[in-house]
Write a structure and sequence with these properties.
This protein is 43% helix and 18% strand. By secondary structure, the protein is of the alpha/beta class. Helix 5 packs across helix 6. The longest helix has 27 residues. The structure holds 5'-O-[(R)-(carboxyoxy)(hydroxy)phosphoryl]adenosine and zinc ion. The site of zinc ion has 5 residues, from helix 4.
């Protein structure tokens, strides 16, 4: 008899993360091998080093999960693994490992869309979502707003024309010499500062499209023109501009689509400023807020396992091809 747990494997970028999750979203165990030390000297992710680090970490991480939980393959009913979007070399390591382990253990293996993983992260550990819903997915690779009529439908409402908001955080962190990864260090600096500089709010009031490249460039210009900047104030002013743009697009989508809930996911949803801003927006519009606990906001195997439950219930095809450019509407 097969078990009733799913093993999720995530290697799309710079974390090797493996988790075991029940159908109700309980995370029995999640182990993540971080590559921060591999990439921090470069101020960003070095793709070839990322895939090599995944090769080294993936089997020890899997073993650690199985040992800590005392589970065996007979406790599992499926394996889910990210097949895109992401870095091709990193994706291949996860996918090939999952395919091999699945064949060895006699388990079905589902290739999962990383973005749908983020989406389902809001259901982990007691989270719930009411539909129809508006989704804000703000990560290092994506910034988008989507409309979900129900749990199985997905209509893209707006996306970024250039950089994602997470990418802007990472680049601003580098300009301000705050270190890597950018999100948390910019957050912390912003907390100590005051939003005294009026950076532009790109595409405010212009539909649902985002653009963060201009905002990033104006931070760069400010740094060039001000040889002794108050770094905390620059960070606070940058974060304030990001928050205003993200909040106003969500407010417009809430007014247009009248959803029951707003789902906020992706790495940037770990930001305390974004969490507070979205809380205030939802209170003022009477919409329920679905937010994953911060630890499930950034990339992790638990969200991939959670999404795999959806694939299984839908009888989705077990696609094991990588697709570095997979879009959110695709399974
Ligand atoms: O979802 P994620 O882990 O990976 C992708 O799918 O891209 O998102 C990573 C992004 C990075 O750009 C990082 O700077 C941002 O999320 N991030 C944050 C925070 N933690 C991570 N941004 C703002 N505040 C944070 N606390
Ligand atoms: Zn992600």
């Amino acid at each position: 008899m097969s078990g009733n747990l799913i093993l999720g494997i995530e290697t799309s970028c710079d974390d090797t993360s493996i988790a075991v999750v029940s159908e109700s979203g309980q995370v029995l165990c999640c182990k993540t091998a971080s590559q921060v030390d591999v990439h921090k000297g470069y101020g960003g992710i070095y793709p070839e080093f990322a895939s090599r680090a995944h090769v080294e970490a993936i089997i020890p991480t899997l073993k650690a999960v199985m040992e800590e939980t005392s589970l065996t393959q007979s406790d599992l009913c499926a394996i889910g693994v990210t097949r895109g979007p992401g870095l091709i070399g990193s994706l291949l390591v996860g996918l090939h490992t999952a395919a091999g382990v699945g064949a060895g253990w006699g388990l079905p293996v589902y290739g999962v869309n990383h973005l749908r993983g983020h989406l389902r992260s809001a259901l982990l550990e007691g989270g719930s979502v009411r539909y129809p819903a508006i989704v804000l997915l703000a990560s290092g690779g994506h910034t988008l707003v989507a409309h979900m009529k129900d749990a199985n439908s997905m209509e893209l409402v707006g996306t970024t024309r250039d950089d994602s908001v997470g990418e802007a955080y990472d680049k601003v962190a580098r300009m301000l010499d705050l270190g890597f990864p950018g999100g948390p260090v910019v957050d912390q600096a912003a907390k100590r500062g005051k939003a005294t500089i009026r950076f532009p709010r790109p595409m405010l009031g212009q539909g649902y499209a985002f653009s963060f490249s201009g905002l990033k460039s104006s931070v760069r210009r400010y740094m060039e023109q001000n040889p002794a900047p108050v770094v905390a104030d620059v960070a606070a002013s940058f974060v304030a501009a990001c928050m205003e743009v993200l909040t106003s697009k969500c407010r417009a989508a809430i007014a247009a689509y009248r959803p029951a809930s707003l789902i906020v996911v992706g790495g940037v949803s770990a930001s305390p400023q974004l969490r507070r801003a979205m809380q205030t927006l939802c209170e003022s519009t009477g919409v329920a807020l679905a937010l994953p606990p911060p630890q499930w906001s950034t990339d992790n195997g638990a969200m991939i396992a959670m999404a795999t439950w959806e694939y299984m219930h839908r009888g989705a095809a077990q696609i094991l091809d990588v697709d570095p450019n997979l879009e959110i509407g695709t399974l």
